[in-house]
């Protein structure tokens, strides 16, 4: 049943679940106060979401995650990627 669920998610989103799990595993021991680590994570999430992230938005996301109190997870980063420029 779990396999069918993942296949359904893959079909709906176009995102390979293996890639999602690999990204999640890489996040477990990551240092989220390190700018390079966070930039790499933002790039990976953007690639999974098939989104281009302008440098300005990447900088905003990185600064928010490094200096802010928001939890660092794929949901937070995905929401930030979908924010409209103000």
UniProtKB/TrEMBL annotation:
Pfam families: SpoVIF
Highest rank taxon of the organism: Bacteria
Name of the protein described by the UniProt record: Sporulation protein
Organism: Sutcliffiella tianshenii
